[in-house]
Amino acid sequence: MPLARPPEDAGVPGRHRGRPRRRRGWATLGWGLVAAGALLLTLGAAPGVQLVHPGLAAAAAFVPYGTVVWLAASAALVLAGGTLRRVAALGALVAVGVHALWTVPYWPRPAPPPRPAQVTVFTANLYYGRADVDALASVVARHDPDVVVLQEVPQPTLARLRVSSIATGRPHVMSAGQAPWGAEGSAIFSRFPLEPLASSAGAAGRGARFVVRVPGPGRPFTLVAVHTTNPLRDAAAWRADLDAVGDVAAGWTAGPIVVAGDFNATLEHEPLRRLLADAVLADAAVQAGAGWLPTFPARRGLPLVGLDHILVGGGVQAHAVWSVKVDGSDHRGLVARISMP
Q1: pTM for the whole structure
Q2: Would you state the torsion angle of the CA atoms of residues 271, 274, 276, 280, taken in this order, to the nearest 10 degrees?
Q3: Distance between alpha carbon 39 and the CA centroid of its chain, in Å?
Q4: Which residues contact 298 (CB under 8 A, 6 or more apart)?
Q5: 265, 240 in Cβ contact below 8 A?
Q6: 3-class DSSP assignment, residue 191
């Protein structure tokens, strides 16, 4: 009688031990992603939670990535196996849908048609003045904005800007807060005259750096130049800065208004949400259907979050917005083509 052939893996200890270990690994990853996704979901659904701690404010910038986090969590839990994990995977797919709805403003769509009275606005953070001024001048020449709004412009950088082609075509200049080095200085270069209206420095000397009247084509418009505190450095000052910007902007939204600069906030952050609602402003990129335009960090690799914005109100219509590389800076610049009412 022939002997039964032993299975190929007989006598091989641990042959099947790897499978439970892999499942445990997938489970650990899956539950970790669920925790991360739950945090992002909470920060998006209850934005007041962001104000509890600076770390939560920083994490809120990544709320748009919740879709990816929940998809990965669902896949990991399915691979981990087990009834509870599969049920959790289905719940994760529901969260994917919620986050997907939140990202609708970032979906590209057809831009509204332009009107005759057009202005092009450019804004950029120069990273403590480390941005390459010659390269910046080339960017400005290529996109030909009428108004250039710059942040983190120390004295030496301002001096170079004043003798560059940026100033040659835009002779009307305002600057404030310049020091030999640092992040405090701001400047505006404009083809049109700049008439000071008011100023409202937020906490730490930032917030709404300039409020000027610009007699551009069509109706004159109000321009508010913005640079707010980093929330990781001082969350209370950051909130105060954005509140100051909102208060200033709200005073001028009866007419055309443009608010541009480095807000150190994404559209998911509670203070910026409140600013947009209270001052009746719209993000130009969203209004123009420009899609996802992250601007920071930009020194290496792809930027992850959109901290820089051009906001419009009082009948101003944005019909094209795009981001541009600024050599030497840790932010990408933004260009917006807008039409006056």
Answers
A1: 0.89
A2: -150
A3: 19
A4: 325, 326, 329, 330, 331, 332
A5: no
A6: coil
Other CB atoms within 10 A of residue 204 CB: 19
Which residue has tokens 């390459």? 132
Structure tokens at 267: 């559209």
- Note whether 312 and 318 are within 8 A (CB): yes
**Could you tell me the domains of the chain?**
18-102 (no CATH), 118-339 (3.60.10.10)
Q: How many Å apart are CA 263 and CA 273, to the nearest integer?
A: 12
Following DSSP, what letter does each residue of 271-283 receive, concatenated?
HHHHHHHHHT-EE
Report whether 176 contacts 186 (CB < 8 A): yes
Quote the CA–CA distance of 318 and 164 in Å, as a whole number: 28
Please name the residue that has the structure tokens 């990816």: 68
232 close to 305: Cβ distance less than 8 angstroms: no
Tens digits of pLDDT across the chain (341 residues):
455 555 554 444 545 556 778 888 888 999 999 999 999 999 999 999 999 999 999 999 999 999 999 999 999 999 988 888 889 899 999 999 999 999 999 999 998 888 888 999 999 999 999 999 999 999 999 999 999 999 999 999 999 999 999 999 999 999 987 788 878 889 999 999 999 986 544 433 456 778 999 998 888 999 999 999 999 999 999 999 999 899 989 989 899 999 999 999 999 999 999 999 999 999 999 999 999 999 999 998 899 999 999 999 999 999 999 999 999 999 999 999 999 98
CA distances from 145 to 42, 70, 141, 207 (A): 40, 40, 8, 23
CA angle 149, 155, 157 (to 5 degrees): 60
